[in-house]
Amino acid sequence: MPHLEITDTFPFAGRHVRRMGYGAMQLAGPGVFGPPKDRDAALAVLREAVAQGVNHIDTSDFYGPHITNQLIREALHPYPADLVIVTKLGAVRGSDGAWLPAQEPQDLERGVQDNLSNLGLDALEVVNMRLMGDMHAPSEGSIEKQITALAELQQRGLIRHIGLSNATPAQVAEAQRIAKIVCVQNHYNLVHRTDDALIDQLAGQGIAYVPFFPLGGFTPIQSSALTDIAQTIGATPMQVALAWLLQRAPNILLIPGTSSVAHLRQNLAAASLTLSGEILAKLDAIGRGDGQVDGQH
Question: Could you report the per-residue pLDDT of 238-258, keeping only the tens digit for each?
Fold first, then answer.
């Protein structure tokens, strides 16, 4: 099968990565806990992603836990020279699958060592500090202790680049006073536009913005409207949502996740979908609903 058109790139962590990447979270079992139902299928998705030109994979050792990183190692090690694996710290999993904060310096060092071991690496290319907030939305509070700890691990050569996940603009600014930040990973999509100003600010600084939940938070009415628009151009709602994000700003890097090769190919195809001005106007009309309300909280 020929490579899909995902050649649009952005400078990231000292390299140029393709803006359509892959998020490995869904490779673990239900609730991102335990092994996958079909291990061979999970390995096939990872290999197909790289075969199609993906060179940015997002993961964490708390996916599974450990499972997703072990799958990545089994499928792809020794890794392609251009592959950037981005992981994250800040949580561990309870025996019941609960997400538990792990934000102390000793927790972060343990997390780095776990990621290194399960990925089979000597150094982690990019580590995102996952701030807990209320899980799907950031909340204010100093992050000096966490970023200082990561900067020390960076000086020891265990981490090459530092990013943030689930962060407010004030926390981004605080982190930048301590260390160079190469990416911010937050909840953002067509209807959840709280980070509009932050995206533009980061674009001006040449810093990547990595949105998650491309269809998260849509009301039934918004989902129906998106489906109608997608049908008019022969695309899926997810493809339109991803294409909109790619056209929103040049520093946006995508990491849609799936455990299916067929869905992976659908997602990657969104990189070659160009939305017309008319379609963009219709999509923005959807986003002016709940998206504006979100921005007031």
Answer: 999 999 999 999 999 999 999
CA-CA-CA-CA torsion sign (95, 134, 173, 59): positive
Is 63 one of the catalytic residues? yes
Give residue 60's identity as a one-letter amino acid code. S
- Closest-CA residue to 261 (of 54, 92, 9, 8): 54
The pair of three-digit structure tokens given for residue 293, joined into one six-digit string? 């309300």
Q: In the block, which residue shows the tokens 């934000």?
A: 103
User: Who contacts 77 (Cβ-Cβ below 8 Å, separation ≥6)?
Assistant: 119, 120
For residue 249, the SS3 value is coil
Question: What structural domains and CATH numbers belong to the chain?
Answer: 9-292 (3.20.20.100)
Beta bridge partners of 257: 23
36: β partners: none
Residue 239 half-sphere exposure toward CB, CA atoms < 13 A: 23
pLDDT for 44: 98
Closest CA to 297 of 189, 139, 173, 191: 139
Measure the CA–CA gap between 212 and 163, rounded to whole angstroms. Answer: 14
Q: Is 257 helix (H, G, I), strand (E, B) or coil?
A: strand
Report the distance separating Cα 126 and Cα 42, nearest Å. 23
Give the residue among 272, 265, 275, 273 at the shortest CA–CA distance from 22: 265
Q: Answer whether residue 93 shows pLDDT above 80.
A: yes
The single residue of 22, 63, 79, 209 carrying the catalytic annotation is 63
Q: What single-letter amino acid sits at 215?
A: L
Could you tell me if 67 and 27 are in contact, meaning their C-beta atoms sit under 8 angstroms apart? yes
Give the Cβ contact number of residue 228 at 10 Å. 12
Which single residue is written with the structure tokens 């990183």? 69
